[in-house]
Amino acid sequence: MSSHDAPPSRSRITTHVLDATTGRPAEGVAVALAARDGGDDGDGWRELDTAVTDADGRVSRIGPDDLPAGDYRLRFDTAAWFAARGTPTFYPEVVLTFHVADDGRHVHAPLLLSPFAYSTYRGS
C-alpha cells in the first residue's frame, strides 16, 4: 500500500479528555458516538461507534469518515472511569450533543473533566 492509499489519521469527529484535577490526559474513558435518526427506539438516537481514549486522552478515530449533516452526540462513561480510580463523581456520564454542518469541516469536541464539574467547547 502506498502512502497516498493510507487511511486518514483521524475521523471527521474527534475528542480529547483532560482530567482537570490532575492536569493530565484522561486515558481509558469509554466514548460512544450516536446520530439522531428519529427512529422508533424510544430516544431517537442510533449508536454509530465506540472508542476508548488513548494515553494522550484522545480519540482520533470514531465513526465513519463521511457523515451527513445532522445532530450527533458523544457519550463519555465517566462513572466507570472515576470508579476505576476510586473517585466518587456527581456525573456518571457526560453527553455532548452537537450539530455537524454539511461543510466537510472537522469537528473536535474536547472535554475538561473533574468529579464535580465539566466543560467543553468546539476545538480545531
Automatic annotation (TrEMBL):
GO terms of molecular function: hydroxyisourate hydrolase activity
Keywords assigned by UniProt, alphabetized: Hydrolase, Purine metabolism
Residue ranges of domain Transthyretin/hydroxyisourate hydrolase in the record: 8-123
Catalytic reaction equation(s): 5-hydroxyisourate + H2O = 5-hydroxy-2-oxo-4-ureido-2,5-dihydro-1H-imidazole-5-carboxylate + H(+)
Swiss-Prot/TrEMBL GO biological process terms: purine nucleobase metabolic process
Family statement: Belongs to the transthyretin family. 5-hydroxyisourate hydrolase subfamily.
Name of the featured protein: 5-hydroxyisourate hydrolase
Organism listed in the record: Agromyces bracchium
